[in-house]
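Supplementary notes for students who missed Thursday's class. We covered one full example, reproduced here. Read the sequence, then the structure, then the short commentary at the end.
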Amino acid sequence: MKPLMLLFWILAVPIHTFVLQPSAHMTVMQNVSAEGDLWAEQRFEHLIEAEKEKRSEEEVIIQGMVHSKRAEEHGVEQTRGLTESEVKNKEVVEKEEQQGQNLDEHYIKPILTVWNTSHSQEIEGEEHLPPVVNQTTTSPIMTTASQPVLNLHTKSVTVPSSFPSTSQGPAATTESIITKLHIVNSTAEAIGATLLVKENGTNDDLRVELHVMNSSKLHLMEEVSVDVTAMAARAGPTAKAPLGTLMVKSKNKAAGAKHKDNTTLKAKKKKVLKVKAKKTKVLKKAKKVSKLKKERKSKPTTPSYFPYFEDHYCPPECSCYGRVVQCSDKDLGKIPYGIPYNSRYILLMNNHIDSIQSKLLSEYDSMEFLVLSNNHLTDETIEGAFEGIKSLKRLYVERNLLQSIPNDLPVTLEELRLDGNQVRVMSDAAFGHCPNLLILSLSNNSLGNKSSTIPPGVLLPLGKLRTLTLSYNQLASVPLQLPLSLRELYLRGNRIQRLQGDMFWGAAELQVLDLSSNRLTDKGLGKASLLNSSRLESLNLEGNLLKQVPLHLPRSIKTLNLEGNFISSIGKDAFISMPQLEHLGLARNKITKVALGAFRVLPLLHQLDMSHNALQQVPRQLPLWLYSATFSHNKIHVIPRDAFCWGPGNESPLSRLVRVHLEYNMIDLGHLDTLAFRCLRGFQVVQFY
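Structure (token representation):
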């Protein structure tokens, strides 16, 4: 027959000492009927099924407790900021909780032993239980508050004689004892127990084990049918008188639970040591950080912009070469932050900069050259941006969206380029702040558009101005009352029809005048046009409407460009007033005839270009000191003997010609007069093809 079991559930009450004090004597009666044994066996099976259900529920509770405990242990590892006292207190609490949980998981099984002897009765470690024979007693005894009480209630049942006996011995008359075990705790907490009957194989020793599991707040009363007859039959023929002594033994089970508690405590200690080690590392790092902070505080404070604007710093968008900062073609939307203050050249062309931060440029005391060409700057976005710059000399703001000249230009400015904007007007206030300006370039703007013109004398405040560029605007006349210091004036690509005499009030220093691609006529260049330009050396009249070589030009002219006009002939005295002429351009005209000796009066002429005309022969008596002569793309078919080589008598000095271009003409080499080239350095000088 299977061992009988009884489970009593106990929650939360740790059992340090569990003492069973008998409240009644257990009497074993013989001659128990087989019917009572059958009833007890059915009752036991019913209890086993109930116990399985309870155990499954308890396992779910225990698993939940284990998971929660693991979460708490994980939380312990994350607590780094606790002090040592707090860590110790927390370890004690967790140790107690772990002990309680281990007792829940592992049953503490005190052993309830029945010795089937006729003379001896004992409870191990406790007083003897007084025997009560052949009577039913119910006397629960309450002990102290800390000790649960075991109450034993016995009943005798007669077993029929037909009950089978074992093979080990004859059938013995036994009694089935239905025992009620009441484990009562005065604190309203209960102890669950399991009663197991084990067999030693002999009739002398019958052991009943009571397994107690630590639980809390549970009070159970169970009835167990102990089949003494079956146990006696299995014990063998040596079964003695039905006298039993109940003993409790829990040493082995408690020792196992204690061993498990020790392992868990060791694991706990290891985890605590790990936490302490981590804490010490954190403390060391904190000490290092505090030392660094103290060192930083002890050092002198650095500016708030460090490392920006420092000499050794270079913005990541730029490339720095000494004191030159190259930020061009970087697709920038604004001036990079942190450009060193000691920079001399700052190049920001070809970006998308549409504004300049207020008072940013005034901090650059060493900046001499600033390039903002090809951006999206407007009058509003640069207002006040250039004010206060101490060393700026060159400012390029070409190809932007400006409609006027900035009024806050620095005093030190020497070169200002505003080409490719939309400037329509010029005011006195714009140039009053920069009297040291030397170069002013305003080409490709809208000056002179419709009714707007340049007021007379607007540029007089620029007393040191050397170069003025107003090319490709819409000017109908040359600005009046220009500064006398002006040396170069570029007016190409306008609508100028007349050159007025009051362009300068006084003797001007003008040396270069470019009036190409305008609408000048012969009348537009009167006697007084260049009266005050006695120092003029280069005059460009290309692409106008002239029909003859202008008269009354200054004697100081060295370069005269008359290409692209409508000149048809050149008279003998056309260049008589220009003895210092060195370069003469007459290409792309309609010249068919040149008077004899027209160029003889130009003793210093070095270069002559008469290509793309309608000449039929090479002009006669060209200057002997001529260096290069170009007559290509004409209708020349005759080369006179005195074209290159002429002089008194039949003798002529050696010519200085190096290159003579006669390509694309109508020259017949078979009838060519070789004496025409007698004074040349070689026949290779002449290019026919």
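Commentary. The CA atoms of residues 144 and 186 lie 7 Å apart. The first strand starts at residue 111 and ends at 116. If anything here is unclear, bring it to office hours.
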